[in-house]
Structures are given as C-alpha cells and as structure tokens.
Write a structure and sequence with these properties.
Blueprint: E1 2-5, H1 9-14, H2 16-28, E2 32-34, H3 44-48, H4 56-65, E3 71-74, H5 77-86, H6 94-102, E4 103-105, H7 106-113, E5 126-129, H8 133-138, H9 154-159, E6 166-167, H10 183-186, H11 188-204, E7 209-212, H12 215-228, E8 233-236, H13 237-241
Parallel strand pairs: 1-2, 1-3, 3-4, 5-6, 5-7, 7-8
Helix pairs in contact: 4-6, 11-12
Protein name: (Fe-S)-binding protein
Organism: Autumnicola lenta
Pfam families: CCG
C-alpha cells in the first residue's frame, strides 16, 4: 500500500516528533510511505483569515504532489477536515478529487482502512483525551454529546489497544479548548479562559498525560499549562500509539 505522509506545517516546524511517530506507525503496518519534500500547508490558516482565494494555489499544489499515492495520511483531523470540506472552492480536477477522497487522519486510517485489532505499544500512564472539534464534529471520530446517536469513538478504540494505559473519564469530555486557529489571536481572552477550563477538567481527574489527535489544540493547552506552571504533560496520540515514552 503506497501511502503519502502529509505533515502539517506547525508540526513540521514545532513538533517534528509527531510526524516521525506517524511515519513509524505506518511502516509498522506494512505501508510504503512517500514523503514529498515540496509539501507545505493545507491552506487552512489562510482560509480562516479570510484569504481563501489566495490559498487556491496551495490546494492545487498539494493535490498534485500526492496524486500518485493510493492514500494520504496526516496526524491532524483539522487539516484533513479542511481538505475534505473546503477544497470545494477550486476546480474539481482529478487531482483535487483524489486528494479530497483519499486523505485520512492517522487514527481514522488505522481503524477504517487498515482495520487494526492490536498495537505493539505500551504507555503506563493515566491519560486524558481531548477530542478536537474538527475531529469530533467534522469527522465523527467520536460522539458529540449533543447528538442522539451511537457513534463509536475511534480515538478510544485505538487508545484501549495500548498496554498499561489508564483512560480518565472527564467531566466535559467534548468541550472545545478555545484554540480555533486565528480565533486564539482575535479573541485571546475567551480562548485562554476556555483553555484553562479544559486543563482544570483534566487536573480534577488526576490526568498525568493529556493527548489529542490535533497538535494545534495541544500546543494551545501546553502554552497555558506552562504559564500556570501546572498541568499534565502534553503528548500527541500518534506518539502514544507508536509506543513512545515520556
């Protein structure tokens, strides 16, 4: 299986260990991983800032780079959701249609495409899961509390395959962290208050490690925790599934 690895720009610049863990996870499950060096960004920051027209070239460039790959996988529900849902503003070339249809978040890919039933990973810590908004409500990787439906959590499914993990039950398990990309800049006070509330929930439930599929949310929460000089360690879900240790 030929899989293209798309590493979001902020992960590439600030959290390369997440990209490495995603690569290693794919290789452990017998995927031939292709990493186009010319890749940059999915264009979401530009779209969120009202500059989506200027981002159209980015959309086409990304689609061209990954057209030869059977699947495209990224460690970011936010970026994957943007590709699927917001690349409708450009001409629907074969490359664009392929990218929109065949791009998956790493957890979604493990569950829905590879259909894994076990992981060779151990993580003996009490872990709190932050369900990022795009993954939860955009991609249905978990069940939002406002929906009267039985959506199985793909995040929970893979985390429960990790040996020694202790998953915490949170008080408000599907609440937003307040990051929201450029929202954190435009509405700083609201964003920070929401982040503090999420950290408080994890702290109240004795969480040692806070994880999520979206490193952008974790980056926001990590910044607040550092300023408060308290809070759980921040680890992307790909690192946990890969068996990386603290």
């Amino acid at each position: 299986m030929k899989v293209g690895l798309f590493v979001p720009c902020y992960i590439d610049q600030f959290f390369p260990e997440v990209g490495i863990a995603t690569l290693q996870l794919l290789e452990k499950h017998n995927c031939e991983v292709i990493f186009p060096n010319q890749q940059t960004c999915c264009g979401q920051p530009m779209a969120n800032s009202g500059m989506e027209q200027e981002g159209k070239k980015i959309y086409h460039d990304l689609a061209y780079l990954f057209f030869s790959c059977e699947y495209i996988v990224a460690p970011s529900p936010s970026c994957v959701h943007h590709i699927r849902s917001h690349y409708d503003i450009v001409e629907q070339t074969e490359e664009i249609k392929h990218l929109r249809k065949q791009t998956f978040d790493i957890v979604e890919f493990l569950v829905d495409v590879l259909k894994i039933d076990h992981l060779e990973a151990s993580f003996p810590h009490r872990v709190g899961l932050h369900q990022s908004c795009h993954g939860l409500r955009g991609m249905h990787l978990g069940k939002p509390s406002e929906l009267m439906s039985n959506i199985p959590s793909k995040w929970d499914k893979v985390l429960k395959m990790v040996n020694g993990i202790d998953l915490a039950m949170l008080n408000r398990a599907d609440e937003c962290c307040g990051f929201g990309g450029t929202f954190a800049v435009a509405e700083e006070a609201v964003s920070v208050k929401m982040g503090k509330d999420r950290l408080a929930d994890h702290n109240q439930n004795n969480v040692e490690v806070l994880t999520s599929g979206d490193m952008s949310c974790l980056m926001h929460l990590q910044g607040i925790a550092k300023r408060q000089k308290s809070g759980p360690k921040i680890v992307h879900i790909a690192n946990i599934l890969n068996g990386d240790q603290l």
